[in-house]
Structure formats: structure tokens, C-alpha cells
UniProtKB/TrEMBL annotation:
Residues 16-114 form the Ig-like domain. Residues 1-19 form the signal peptide. The lineage of its organism: Eukaryota, Metazoa, Chordata, Craniata, Vertebrata. This is Ig-like domain-containing protein. The keyword NADP does not apply. It comes from Macaca mulatta (Rhesus macaque). The keyword Signal applies. Keywords: Adaptive immunity, Immunity, Immunoglobulin, Immunoglobulin domain, Signal. One of its GO terms (biological process) is adaptive immune response. One of its GO terms (cellular component) is immunoglobulin complex.
Length: 132
């Protein structure tokens, strides 16, 4: 049975930082899958996410299933989030990363995102003052 589903999305981030903008690119843009078969998604960044202070590489993978918010799959390149089946495996270093699904299941359909976690843009939301 072939599932005409989009397994992943393209996520490109431009994050202002002292070392220049970070650009994230995923391939392929769409991945038709067959249950039981392996699947692989690649993520390339314009720079490394290795933190020289703690030695961690801050690259995460998320899955957004239809009608749901994104859920964490993999953090620090290869560590599975709680409850994530062992058919999901992350690997890579430097600026090239891969998410592999060893045997795709129908429930794996959704949009997959790789995300850098080394630089953030923040917005502070504060309560407004009432005026009379």
C-alpha cells in the first residue's frame, strides 16, 4: 500500500547572529512512502551547531502530524525524545544531518522539520497598562 503523503517539509530559517545568518535546508521536499520500507530525510545548515562550551550539537528533529502541533523526535542530533520509537534515528555532524526511519508506519505521516537550537530570536510579551 502506497501512501500519497508528504512526509516532510522544507524549513529554511534566517536567524540574525554575529556570525551571519543561519540557513537550514531539507531534502527531499516530498517523500512518498510505503509502509515497512525505510525513509531518509537530509538536513543541511550553513554553519555548524557544535557548542564549544558543552560539546553538544544543537540540531533537533520534529514531526507535525495533521491537525497537531509539532512534537519532538530527536534532540542533540541523535537522542530520541521520550516515547519516540527506536525506528527513528538521527545522525550527522558539522552541517550535514539525517533522520532515518527504519520501517515507516502509516502513523508516521506528517511534516518533518530539522531545527537549529543555538541562536534564538526572542519576543517579550508583557501585560499592557489600562488607560482611563
Amino acid at each position: 500500500m502506497r501512501l500519497p503523503a508528504q512526509l516532510l517539509g522544507l524549513l529554511m530559517l534566517w536567524v540574525p547572529g554575529s556570525s551571519g545568518d543561519i540557513v537550514m535546508t531539507q531534502t527531499p521536499l516530498s517523500l512518498p512512502i510505503t509502509p515497512g520500507e525505510p525513509a531518509s530525510i537530509s538536513c543541511r545548515s550553513s554553519q555548524s551547531f557544535l557548542d564549544s562550551d558543552d560539546g553538544y550539537t544543537y540540531l533537533d528533529w520534529y514531526l507535525q502530524k495533521p491537525g497537531q502541533p509539532p512534537q519532538p523526535l530527536i534532540y542533540f542530533v541523535s537522542s530520541r525524545a521520550s516515547g519516540v520509537p527506536d525506528r527513528f534515528n538521527g545522525s550527522g555532524s558539522g552541517s550535514d544531518f539525517t533522520l532515518k526511519i527504519s520501517g515507516v508506519e502509516a502513523d508516521d505521516v506528517g511534516v518533518y522539520y530539522c531545527m537549529q537550537c543555538i541562536e534564538f530570536i526572542s519576543t517579550v510579551v508583557q501585560p499592557g497598562k489600562e488607560t482611563s
